[in-house]
Amino acid sequence: MQTIGIKDLQKNPAILTRSLEADEYTMITKRSTPIGLAISFDDSIIDAGLKTALMVDAFEKGYLSLGQFAKSLKLSKTEAMKMLSMMGVDVVDYDFEDDLKFMDAFDGHQ
Q1: Does 22 lie in the same domain as 74?
Q2: Tell me, what CATH number does 7's domain have?
Q3: How far apart, in whole angstroms, are the C-alpha atoms of residue 27 and residue 38?
Q4: Are residues 23 and 77 in the same domain?
Q5: What is the DSSP code string of 23-76?
């Protein structure tokens, strides 16, 4: 996520344009205090609703875990996975810690 001060934005609005064209979230600040968030506009904002579109995009970009995504939309993990799948978003609910424990136990048996 890029951060742009309001004074920099007033001097050079192209900074924000480039950020939006690159499909990046951009935090706009005034005296180092966040005052807004700029996001790229696309049809999913209208089709799926703003909050859902923001959460899906944040999940895709790795800003949210599956659990955080589900909680933000008040869904179970299963419902969240179904929603993401229907929207064409790859979903993997993978517990790496469990695999490490299994591998440690497996190594101990040799």
Answers
A1: no
A2: 3.40.1620.10
A3: 6
A4: no
A5: T--EEEEETTEEEEEE----HHHHHH-HHHHHHHHHHHTTSS-HHHHHHHTT--
